């Protein structure tokens, strides 16, 4: 009797590309949510969080509430506050979630970009120092950025209902969406104006999850409002604006706040922020060297050889290049600019860099010579950085400046790396030398980017030296709150029921004292009434206070202490983030009878 053996073919649970995509999403999730609530909220963050808190704790009529021009953040965060309570973590939750979802954007355009380019772009967006830092800020432009671009991605993949929901959330995310729409709109118009009419537009491409190498030749025309799919998206967008913008129709003023987004953006053209535009340019070069280097190379290669690569890739380079320049110009010339507005520049920057980096991926087994050269380049880069740090500590010889010593040593390291690349090119071939050099530079810039991302987002958040926050930065907030809680325990036996009066009134202080119900903000020093705790500015010291209270100063706000684009001692700032700052202090006064020693003296 014949027997047949059934053999089940082995199947991989996930492919390598899927595993890399999961890794990129996991890294993005980790760096955006790790210790998200550890740093205190700055004034810029607290302004938005306090509006959400007022909405969550509203016990009076909805007409008395004021909702600012970021209704999506304010209302969505108020829902979290109502359920879980007001915390720093929840105040930053929605921007962090939006920043994490942004990692999906390259995969929504995978047909046009190709899978390798999408993976490289996903890792770039996941670990970019600017995107990570802004994602960890309450009320940041991250929600406008992420929801706008994800709406385009959902439309690109024929998910029209989802595109409508995301578009509605984007429109409710404040004035930042106006700036982003202007940059992308100008770029799209320029692309359609100068591109060949025979080339299919990106919005006309048919997305079915196939490989990007297959040419797309569909000649579909743009959809009109009568198209069922377009109507589906519009209905979803309108419903989202009505439901989220009014918090299920409880707060109709949320729609008024949404309509103020354009007016608020236009007001920015008459209200300068004081941020130096060259600071934004410097931030791009210092925080995004990998993306900047290869994006420039990609644009130069495209200008020289416009027919190199697939038609889809060429279309994407057109759009990304126009989008990059349009967004950068709008950001630099906007008077109310902030460094965080560069997030609109970073997405096309990483798209171009990913396209260029994909050319250097090994087709098969990596060349061992290229790998060894890459390791050597990384070692030389580490030596370069160590020299940059150590030469500032040298005692120069007479007649020789530290700058001269540093330049000579650094130039020698660069020349050694260049000589190595030339020798490998002559001894093997130039492709091997080129790949090793690119891999080494990529590894070096990746380690550098992760290092400065960790410092800006987790070690020194909201500090002026990191550039990405809106000044002023935060000071000794946690120490102030813990001191007040200790005094409350002494007087009442509970950590948060001491009576507090404060002549200092700013958003960060109101947020820090939100859990103290007996807190009152006053304009003048108290007269006969002597609260247990009093908070004043440093210049409000008086003999009456020193006679009845004991005071301790706290650094509350930290302002940048330089007026140029970057601190004067650039090397110290670059390596150790040492920069001049201006500390604004407040004084915490505690009534003398709350101290055990004073109480015992009074009893005697």
Question: Summary?
Answer:
With 604 residues, the protein is mostly helical. The chain folds into 3 domains: 16-57 and 64-266 and 275-359, no CATH class; 362-466, no CATH class; 475-603, no CATH class. It contains 26 helices and 6 strands.
Terminal Cα span: 110 Å
Broad structural category: mainly alpha
Number of helices: 26
Determine the oligomeric state from the structure.
single chain
Spans of at least 5 consecutive residues with low confidence: 1-10, 198-221, 598-604
Strand content: 5-15%
Mean pLDDT score: 86
- Overall form: globular
Largest sheet: 6 strands, mixed
How many structural domains in the coordinates? 3
According to DSSP, the number of beta strands is: 6
Radius of gyration: 28 Å
Strand order of the largest sheet: 1-5-6-4-2-3
- The percent of residues in helical segments reads 55-70%
